[in-house]
Amino acid sequence: MIATVVARLRAAGALLVGKTNLDQFATGLNGTRSPYGAPRCVFNRDYVSGGSSSGSAVAVARGLVAFSLGTDTAGSGRVPAAFNNIVGVKPTPGLVPATGVVPACRSLDCVNVFAADVADGVAVRRIIEGFDAQDPYSAAPAPIGLPPQPRVGVLTTGDREFYGDAENAKLYAQAVAQAETLGWRVVEFDYAPFAEIAALLYEGPWLAERLAAIEPFLAQKPEALDPTVRGLIESAKKFSAADAFRGQYRLQELFRAADKEAEKFDVLLLPTSPTIHTVEAMKADPVRLNAQFGRYTNFVNFRGMAAIAVPAGFRADGLPFGVTLIGPPQSDEALAPFAAAFHAASGCGAGVARESVPAQAPAPLTGSLEIVVVGAHLAGQPLNWQLTQAGGWLVEATRTAPDYRLYALANTTPPKPGLIHEPGFAGPGLEVEVWSLPAEAFGRFVDAIPAPLGVGKITLASGRRVTGFLCEAHALTGAREITNHGGWRDFLASQR
């Protein structure tokens, strides 16, 4: 059976190069648990490549392919990205169908994308996403927005467990500082309930779901399993049906505690892996060291969250370090521009060659429409909620072409400006934002725009033309021209 994701990529023109190595039955985060040998970190062959989707990540990092697919239950689409200096796009569970994919934990599995940069990874994810009736866990995309200056949850000093890896601890602190330079508001949160959720994946009855996936194979060919994989999966036999229900009850209790902490942030910025180990060390202590890699990844699919792992720095020994931006369910599109901006700002490039990556957000989503806003709908302004509640996300902050004038309109509540196009006028260009809305939400949003405002095509400083707010000329009676301020925010600041 051809997996749905492969069929969709082929239909879009993708060339299938081949299959890649992985931790057997996707059980592991390190890449050494394979009958075909252990792929190695592209920067130092003594070190693990990360897993389970080890070969997929190495193929991209080496430049053998433009992108690859993996699977992610506990972090397998993120840890290999961190260890090989590439991007790992992990969708909201259910967004990408898993039909035809051998399951690890069927209720939690995600098909992920490895790529050199966020834009490429998101472009591939858009091709493979979408409802598939053959997958009972499949869900249609229902994108939600994020604030343009998000509250970014970061670990407290007490929750920063790096298992003695001072280099990675330092790089995470630098990543937090970088988030602030990007204009994001950094807030600390209590990781304890998330850590307990994460622990349930390998210490609780969810191990039995891995047994359910391969039980006939295990019964017929137990000798074919990697010893560590076999030991983990066979240990699931100790759990009863009652244990499974007790695990579900505990998970729901932890969700309540995690929900309370989640009120503090819009997205999370966490280390993708606290540390990295050599292949030999991993083989000598395979379970304990593997568990370290999943400390900040295992909870994500339990919570149904979207995540994008990006490079974040290099250690003194030349090994890469990565962080993961984690957003609410269905925030996949909204999360992408933040991940792209962070990756570009990190200066890490991509893969072993450290090739430069674009800073711009991914191209607009098919099925979504962009709109230029200039006044009360700007981020932080009184009507911005109309965009975010409609599932909108900020694409870019930019300026108009020079031939536009801006006026403060009279008798509007809340106060609003009017943008007028005047060909031949040589102005400063005006501050605007480009937002993207789902197509159906765009129609409702535009229909609610009150006169004298309307929509038309606005030329941006880049030359791109996008639908946006314009004003009818008759409304300028009694209005005050504020073009010289360069934008609505600067005008408001001058009034204060």
- Beta-sheet strand percentage? 15-25%
**Count of individual domains:** 2
Radius of gyration over all CA atoms, rounded: 24 Å
Kindly state the number of beta strands.
Answer: 18
Helical amount among residues, as a percent range? 25-40%
Mean pLDDT: 94
What is the fourth-level CATH superfamily of the largest domain? Amidase signature (AS) domain
Summarize the structure.
By secondary structure, the chain is an alpha+beta fold.
Describe the structure in your own words.
The protein is α+β, with helices and mostly antiparallel strands. The protein has 2 domains: about 5-345, Alpha-Beta Complex (Amidase signature (AS) enzymes), CATH 3.90.1300.10; about 370-495, Gamma-glutamyl cyclotransferase-like (Hypothetical upf0131 protein ytfp, Roll). The protein has helices spanning about 5-10, 55-60, 80-85, 120-130, 165-180, 190-205, 205-220, 225-235, 240-260, 280-285, 285-295, 330-345, 385-390, 440-445, 490-495; strands at about 40, 45-50, 65-70, 85-90, 110-115, 150-155, 185-190, 265-270, 305-315, 320-325, 370-375, 395-400, 405-410, 415-420, 430-440, 455-460, 465-470, 480. An 8-stranded mixed beta sheet has the order 3-5-4-9-10-8-6-7, with helices on both faces. Strands 11-15-12 form a 3-stranded antiparallel beta sheet. A 3-stranded antiparallel beta sheet has the order 14-13-18, with no helix packed on it. Strand 16 (about 455-460) and strand 17 (about 465-470) form a beta hairpin. Helix 6 packs antiparallel against helix 9 (about 240-260) and helix 7 (about 205-220) packs across helix 8. The model has no long low-confidence stretch (mean pLDDT about 95).
